Amino acid sequence: MRKLFVIGIGAGDPEQVTVQAVRALRGVDVFFVIGKGEAKRELVDVRGAILAAHVDHPYRVVEVADPPREREVSGADYRGVVEDWHERRAGLLAEAFDRVDGVGAILVWGDPSLYDSTLRMVERVRAGGRSFELEVIPGITSAQALAARHRIVLHDIGEPVHITTGRRLREEGLGSGCSTLVMLDGECSFTTVSDPDVHIWWAAYLGLADETLIEGPLHEVRDRIVRQRTELRERKGWIMDIYLMRHI
């Protein structure tokens, strides 16, 4: 493989793929997809829909099975578990890359710079002795899509935005003096926030047909979000959600 594109494809809507990304897609011979099992097959199918919408030449799709990782870890153990998972992922990608001639691409949900491990794994592959040109194409993040769908600005006047995970929100609590954007939260960690002056803007499946939005004072909509999230996950088998919280 002489070149690899890592392409941000947005939050799921084919119309949110940038012109730069489309131009890159049309120069690719092989697309690598990290599969996450049948329960999340829709994530692969959405990538297929994006290719069908924007690629105008014959291409191949190579699916790489995502290795399992331990989920119930915290603190110092968490980083070690994730590092091991990245190493095993990188090994599988290296094997797939070795079978390709020409130009390859990995399609990244959202943008490669924000809570995504693709670039770390690709650098591990290159450090292992594979030589290829690497180009990164940015995409619209779920944070941007959340703000657009709720018609809000992510921060208040002159304030910072704190971007974190559900795990860290549970461990550290909600900070003061900034808006907090929470990603990768499988535990409804907003339920641990008791401040009555907090407002939440929540969304699931941004850009997809099942997109769902809820916003309001946290103490009023907390239970509604939990119920809606549980129903959606049970029906679809997976969920991707994100939310912003701010003191009002």
UniProtKB/TrEMBL annotation:
<keyword id="KW-0489">Methyltransferase</keyword>
<dbReference type="InterPro" id="IPR012797">
    <property type="entry name" value="CobF"/>
</dbReference>
<dbReference type="GO" id="GO:0032259">
    <property type="term" value="P:methylation"/>
</dbReference>
<dbReference type="InterPro" id="IPR014777">
    <property type="entry name" value="4pyrrole_Mease_sub1"/>
</dbReference>
<keyword id="KW-0808">Transferase</keyword>
<feature type="domain" description="Tetrapyrrole methylase">
    <location>
        <begin position="3"/>
        <end position="221"/>
    </location>
</feature>
<dbReference type="Pfam" id="PF00590">
    <property type="entry name" value="TP_methylase"/>
</dbReference>
<dbReference type="GO" id="GO:0043819">
    <property type="term" value="F:precorrin-6A synthase (deacetylating) activity"/>
</dbReference>
<dbReference type="InterPro" id="IPR014776">
    <property type="entry name" value="4pyrrole_Mease_sub2"/>
</dbReference>
<dbReference type="InterPro" id="IPR035996">
    <property type="entry name" value="4pyrrol_Methylase_sf"/>
</dbReference>
<dbReference type="InterPro" id="IPR000878">
    <property type="entry name" value="4pyrrol_Mease"/>
</dbReference>
<comment type="pathway">
    <text>Cofactor biosynthesis; adenosylcobalamin biosynthesis.</text>
</comment>
<protein>
    <submittedName>
        <fullName>Precorrin-6A synthase (Deacetylating)</fullName>
    </submittedName>
</protein>
<dbReference type="GO" id="GO:0009236">
    <property type="term" value="P:cobalamin biosynthetic process"/>
</dbReference>
<keyword id="KW-0169">Cobalamin biosynthesis</keyword>
<keyword id="KW-0949">S-adenosyl-L-methionine</keyword>
